Amino acid sequence: VTALARRTVIVGTGLIGGSLAASGRRAGALEHVVGVGRGRDNLDHARAAGLVDETSTDLAGSLDGADLVVLAAPVDACCELLETVATHTGERCVVTDVGSVKVPLVERATALGIASRFVAAHPMAGGVDTGAAAARADLFDERVVVLTPNPATAAEAVGLVRRLWEACGARVVEMDAAAHDAAVAVTSHLPQMLAFCLSAAAGRDAARGEHLEELVGAGFKDTARLARSDAAMWAAIARLNGGSILAAMDRFSAVWQELRAAIEAGDEQALRVVMSEAAAFKSRVDDR
Amino acid sequence: VTALARRTVIVGTGLIGGSLAASGRRAGALEHVVGVGRGRDNLDHARAAGLVDETSTDLAGSLDGADLVVLAAPVDACCELLETVATHTGERCVVTDVGSVKVPLVERATALGIASRFVAAHPMAGGVDTGAAAARADLFDERVVVLTPNPATAAEAVGLVRRLWEACGARVVEMDAAAHDAAVAVTSHLPQMLAFCLSAAAGRDAARGEHLEELVGAGFKDTARLARSDAAMWAAIARLNGGSILAAMDRFSAVWQELRAAIEAGDEQALRVVMSEAAAFKSRVDDR
Q1: What ipTM score was computed for the predicted complex, to two decimals?
Q2: What torsion do the CA atoms of A24, A27, A32, A33 make, to the nearest 10 degrees?
């Protein structure tokens, strides 16, 4: 692989940013990589682990000469950092991100006049552990990465970001940003909200002295696995993708009420309609 | 361990019944074990795998001389089979079960006049695989088994069933049957209903052509893991424990509406209340 970028600045060298640095350098797609962050410890770890060539806590100062900037901080921080990046990078510098919500970033980039060179991206990868310590070069193997370019985005910029992710082993899919945000509201944000509410509801019951903890098994634990997810990150996602999340919650609630009515009426056929739809979709995603 | 029963009849030699047979015999708690079922193939497998000493498809005929009967068929079938067991066993034969709903079995046993010798039990163990082929002697190691005796239950009968499960490596907890059913409605039946509805809702969205499958990640898969669970079993549980399930669903819905309102209002503090309650309860059950 010919190098796609000589100087790359990755803002946020956590699990995703650190893994992209490691993977892109290993593949030869990225030459010199600068890791930028606020926390010295995490940056030092990223440097010591060989994820990046250089580190900095000064975003504006590190951007000089960059031909690729990857925003890999929390999604709300990335929205704010876009202005600094737009101001301190040249016309030939491609800017991308890794956030799980795309419309606010695309809108912000457009408002800042960098729509042609901003390529919004969302790698569908992650893990329970976070920080540079959890980063690994094979994190994106076989994973889907969604790009949400629009007519204003330069084809060469899209091509560069696509080739970068392909070099990291990912499968790239292009979608409309709004369609992306509506889809992840269902596939990612809705399960997250369900896990929060399941665990919170059980916690309230337990607080009434029902000794529920003893009766918690593997089913509860898997369904509520996400209940300990980072609150700050999810508060930001709920703010940035609120409309789509509310719509997804309401479509869930319609099915929920249907199931509830079936149980109340003892209508086994109606119950089985929901169950068979559930099994069918789960089979489809398991078989992928 | 001194043998607790010389002739044990286990009705249903699937994952639970087969594992109990294997575990109880290995521990020396059960001497001769007869596996009873309707399907010849599964019984042959149980016999060939050494889970049981003898098999039969004739429940009534196998009960002669039994001093312990374990109902390990689907929970609705167990309710129906209790009459045959009550009729064909003597006063000294202890009857127990392994169903995940307890009140209907206790009520049926009482109506059949065997309340003193029926010990309702619920081992909190299971697995994705089913049938005798999935049975294993260590399935109950460290698992909780709930017994729900009442004042009518003879102490010796409770003691026998308790010692059997302890011999199998389980930790025995006694609860009131109605309290058990209300608790599992939250810890087991509620997550199951959420998984069904999450997967069904996503399936309906996907059917509208939104290409959701590509955006399904690990979070969705875990939250919806139970979506392919056995429909017949869950239809029976929904029927037998409908009241408690509806109440648990409604308490979930109250939290769900609270979260929805917080997102709609952009009220991060209210959102964080639910998130922190969720994290706190999940931490408690993870730390157990």
Answers
A1: 0.92
A2: 20
